[in-house]
Amino acid sequence: MIPAVTPIVAQMAGTDVGVAVVLAAHAVERYIERVQPCADGQAAVSQIARLFSLGIVEPRPAEWDATQRPALMYLTVGDVSFVLDVDAADRERLVARTCVTSALCRSTSRRLRRRLRGAPERVRHQGRAWERYRRPAPGQLNFQDDSECF
């Protein structure tokens, strides 16, 4: 069970101003699942509070985070990042919605790097060599060489 949490104060990037951050139960559950599988709810909350004292809140995700849907703010410490959003109940504080890790984002970032450099997404074995699979359009024949057909 995840305990009710008092807001944690985190520092905003480029200022000395602190902002209150409330942990959503989902963020604590994801932290336990992805970072400290043996921790109980209270231990996870205290570890997260220590991480928040080390990091700063900034509008950019971590370099390793290849998200397709960016959030409003992030707090990243090493390989752990918390996705932050404005609290709907109190617009003066933030809510940590989830926790992501670099290990979780590795496959996503690899897929993004391949796409950016123009490498094929999927490769399918056809005959002697590995070639990119290209499905013909509906109603279109897929002849390798037209001269062989006549």
Characterization of the model:
The mean pLDDT is 79. A hairpin with a 2-residue loop joins strand 4 and strand 5. 26% of the residues lie in helices and 28% in strands. The chain is of the alpha+beta class and 150 residues long. The radius of gyration is 23 Å and the shape is elongated.
Question: How are the SSEs ordered, and which strands pair?
Answer:
Layout: E1 8-12, E2 18-23, H1 25-34, H2 41-54, E3 56-58, E4 73-77, E5 80-86, E6 94-101, H3 102-116, E7 123-126, E8 129-132
Parallel strand pairs: 1-3, 2-6
Antiparallel strand pairs: 1-2, 3-4, 4-5, 5-6, 7-8
List keywords for this structure.
150 residues, alpha+beta, 3 helices, 8 strands, 28% strand
Q: What is the end-to-end distance? A: 73 Å
Number of strands: 8
The parts where pLDDT drops under 50 for at least 5 residues are none
User: Helical region count?
Assistant: 3
Rg result: 23 Å
| Large-scale geometry | elongated
Structural class: alpha+beta
Task: Provide the residue-averaged pLDDT.
Answer: 79
What is the share of helical residues? 25-40%
Percentage beta strand: 25-35%
The strand line-up of the biggest sheet is 1-2-6-5-4-3
Question: Can you give me a brief rundown of this structure?
Answer:
The chain has 3 helices and 8 strands; from the N terminus they run ββααββββαββ.
